[in-house]
Amino acid sequence: MDVLAIGAPAEEATLAALLRCCVREVAGPRGLVWPAPPYVLMRVAGTLLRARTHGGAALRLDGPPERLEGGSWQPLTVAELVRLTETDLADLPDLAGLSDRQDEHARPGRRAAHLDVEPNGEFAAQVAASRDAIAAILAARAQAEPPADPWLASEQALVYGHPFHPTPKARDGADWLRYAPEAHAAFPLRLLAVRDDALAEEGDLTALDALGPAPAGHRLLPAHPWQLALLRPALGSELVDLGPGPLAVPTSSVRTVYVPDAEVCLKFSLDVRITNCVRKNAWYELAGAVELTSRLAPLIAEVAARHPAVRWLPEPGYRTALGQREGLGVIVRASPWTACDPGVTPVLAAALALDAAPADPLAWWTAYVSAVALPVVDLYVSHGVVLEAHLQNVLVGLDAAGRPVQAIFRDLEGVKLVAGRHDLDGLHPAVAAALTHDPARGWARVVYCLFVNHLTEIAATLAGPDDELLRALWRAARDLLARQAAELGQPLPLRDLLAGAPLPAKANLRVRWARAADRSAGYVPIANPLA
Predict the structure, then answer these.
(1) In this structure, is residue 115 part of a structural domain?
(2) What is the CATH number of the domain that holds 418?
(3) What does pTM read for this prediction?
């Protein structure tokens, strides 16, 4: 394997992602980004940089970025951009921005307290580690067979990760590549048995019981082998190791897997940091998944009467061991194949953002926005439900001709209920708090996930370097949303969106520099393509 051939794409992808972060979170908010066609110019730590771009807010690069030195343009490297970024971040007074998690007494839209940040001595190493992980993924991927299932192939297509994250492939742990979806991993689950009196569970767990037999007085508990190796739980009469179980295929989130033999998805805890967060099923998220499954069913059914393309993946139950409630908690999730109509193939939206080339981009986009965006807006306005419709939480059902005809929403961890619009009496206070957003925070999350993270990337892929087509796509989206606004009675958030209010973009670079939890990430404003 040619190491240089692998290393070059990893370096280029890392440089591109960090440069996008600098435009959005460092130079842009300070007014230090200027269009100079065919380039975008920016100043970072006093150094003038330039890059050819297309795709509007998606900032797709058309060549290597450069820096001005001694009156001439020189190639920019990851190490140089890291150094410049660190210099500017150390001087920024506000690394929090508008927090995604305001305190409970904050007024809607009120600025949260600034993060108390010291220089991050780990940042350069984290960027380098993410770049090295991309190189390792490319090498492993070249030797592996992709899944025959087109949906699973799309789940495993995200080699370079989040385009606006400084460390998009950050992974803790020595064995991560063995379980990496991008490397076309597949592995047997580990089956445990939990004694009945040491069990915690709720909801419909038929799918778990079908994975295999359990000893008398015990219930079956599947475990991710990576998590089991990290936890090393005490085994005995309360928790029995039954050995290998059915084959599992990891999806794009790493910790959620699909079990083909059982036709079910399982969401596990993983005590490792993936991108920003240690991915673990908190105890209140276990209960919240079952609660939301019950609450959302009639609401989504009502919205589906107006938007028949909408589908979702319920999470009907969870099971865990009392001694490892969070560490061994597993959430059952429906398979997307059960949600799609016959003849419709689910594909991860993030994979479509990498490669979508329909014969008629405008017609395809119109169908896409109608299927994906309109029900999300409807659920917020009509029912106070916040869907995190970002690229990894949405599957798009394609018909035999490749047209988007259904939208399948998943992952109830990110679903929130707008405060004051739902009766949460009777829930544990921690569960109720985890399920709730205030209206301003909920709408900001809807807009970021749906428009900034999702639709800008799909539009950029469809339009390519054709700026006029890109504008036509956004005009079509605006027409659809304007018609929906009229049908919904011109709600204020939607009126502001259509009037051109800036869009909130999540500040991944700033929160990583601050070494803060992902829930502390704030937003920075970017231009609204619907204006």
Answers:
(1) no
(2) 1.10.510.40
(3) 0.93
